[in-house]
Amino acid sequence: MPTFLIERTVPGAAGLTPEQLREIACTSNCVVEGLGVAYTWHRSYVAGDKIYCLHETDDPETVREHARRGGFPADLVVEVASEFGPHTADT
User: Fold this and answer.
1) Whole-angstrom Cα distance, residue 59 to residue 62?
2) Cα-Cα-Cα-Cα dihedral sign, residues 76, 81, 83, 84
């Protein structure tokens, strides 16, 4: 199943409190449960005025539907082509 990187512009995102992040997570989890399709939210990263998320599902339209139902922006939705890191140099 493809993994998608989502970029969300959220002014002041870096200043969101743990409680606000918990509320966002609860909303996202509820939406995932209601989608009725295979969908996994792996994690999100907050940096500046952006939230970057990694989600796994069949297509980018499902990612956009998750965003719409949750009231989240989805400024960019791209399929991850590959992954690498320091360990890649050892192979």
Assistant:
1) 6
2) negative
Report the C-alpha gap between 76 and 91 in whole angstroms.
32
For residue 43, what is the DSSP state?
Answer: E
For 35-52, what is each residue's pLDDT tens digit? Answer: 999 999 999 999 999 999
pLDDT in tens, 49-81: 999 999 999 999 999 999 999 999 999 999 999
What does the domain layout of the chain look like in residue ranges?
Answer: 3-82
How far is the C-alpha of 55 from the C-alpha of 77, rounded, in Å? 10
This prediction has a pTM of 0.92
**CATH number for region 3-82:** 3.30.70.3090
Question: In whole angstroms, what is the distance from residue 4 CA to residue 41 CA?
Answer: 10
